[in-house]
Amino acid sequence: MADHAESSIVIEARPAVVMGTIADIAAYPTWVGQIEEAEILEVGPEGRPRQARFRINAVVVKDEFVNEYTWKGDEQVTWSLVSGQAMSAQDGGYTLRDLGDGRTEVTYELTVELKVKLPGLLRRKIQGGIVDAALKDLKKHVEKLAES
């Protein structure tokens, strides 16, 4: 069964800066806690990743998987799982909303279905933790870059 998690955060940066950071998938291992390796496999016509491979260590699940991305300017990116070892499905996305004054609201949605069976409460807790951690890591990284 697939579980869905969603959360939002406000980042002190313009949408283009935030989306530029999200699009720099190869750099994820340097600032996203659970990603051990990230590799861009294919670049789309707009110069942003179309497919990428990841190796993660997320608490009770370790996985290597490939996602395919769809970009909509600096407003939204969505992705779907192409292949994975521990996951049978993954759909996610970031939606950015310009709040003005150099601030951006970022909403992260993630729906995952694991091949391995875990109790529902544990699955939802892990997934919610992944979404919250990803947003906090993104905020910290973008705002640190803005200070530089």
What does this structure look like?
The protein has helices at residues 15-23, 120-147; strands spanning 3-11, 35-43, 49-58, 61-72, 76-84, 87-100, 103-114. With 148 residues, it is α+β, with helices and mostly antiparallel strands. Strand 4 and strand 5 (76-84) form a beta hairpin. The longest helix has 28 residues, at 120-147. It is globular.
Can you give keywords for this protein?
single chain, 148 residues, alpha+beta, 7-stranded antiparallel beta sheet, 2 helices, 7 strands, globular
Structure classification = alpha+beta
Mean pLDDT: 88
Question: Strands of the largest sheet, in order across it?
Answer: 1-7-6-5-4-3-2
Q: What oligomeric state do the depicted chains represent?
A: single chain
Percentage of residues assigned to helices: 25-40%
Radius of gyration: 15 Å
Question: What's the total helix number?
Answer: 2
Which percent band covers the strand fraction?
Answer: over 45%
| Overall geometry | globular
